[in-house]
Amino acid sequence: MARQSNGAAPPKVSIISEGTTFEGTLISSSDMRISGCVKGSVETAGKLVVPESGYIEGNVKAASLDIAGRIKGSINVSGNLLLKRTAIVDANIQLGRLMVEEGAIFNGECRTGDRIIDTSEIPASPEGTGNSEPAHE
Predict the structure, then answer these.
(1) Closest residue by Cα to residue 37 from 73, 9, 10
(2) Which ranges in the chain belong to alpha helices (H)?
(3) Does the global pTM surpass 0.90?
(4) Does 132 map to a domain?
């Protein structure tokens, strides 16, 4: 096994490659990268990365999660969740912190701690005001 310059072993990463379909439950103590398709549950104590080619249909649990691909189901992230501009997420989410790039698509409920954020009930900002309160007639 190759060593890093500081003498430590490189971090282990479990990979489902593009073109691969897995059905069932994936559990790992290391980081994971899902470039293919998973239908079932994915659980890692580390970071999960879902690039543009990745698709997960089922339950996801991770310490942190970066999504550029697609997830349909439920997501539980104890730390950071990053939705990149190409992400399409149809899921209910429980998380520590959410970061969203412009262009990402999210449908579902988002829960941080004890608060629920339902994106369908957030009023749009009236054009040009920068205020989230509806304009008065």
Answers:
(1) 73
(2) none
(3) no
(4) no
Span 49-83, pLDDT tens digits: 999 999 999 999 999 999 999 999 999 999 999 99
The model's confidence at residue 5, banded by pLDDT at 50, 70 and 90, is: low
Residue 25 inside a domain? The answer is: yes
Residue 129 within a domain: no
Q: How far apart, in whole angstroms, are the C-alpha atoms of residue 108 and residue 89?
A: 8
Task: State how many domains the chain has.
Answer: 1
> 111, 47, 122, 128: which is closest to 74 by C-alpha?
111
Looking up tokens 């890093």 gives 4
Given the DSSP bridges, would you call strands 115-118 and 109-112 parallel, antiparallel or unpaired? antiparallel
Question: What distance in Å separates the CA atoms of residue 53 and residue 18, rounded to the nearest whole number?
Answer: 7
Q: Which residues pair with 62 in a beta bridge?
A: 77
Q: Is 65 left (phi over 0), alpha (psi -120 to 50) or beta?
A: beta
Residue 127 lies in a domain: no
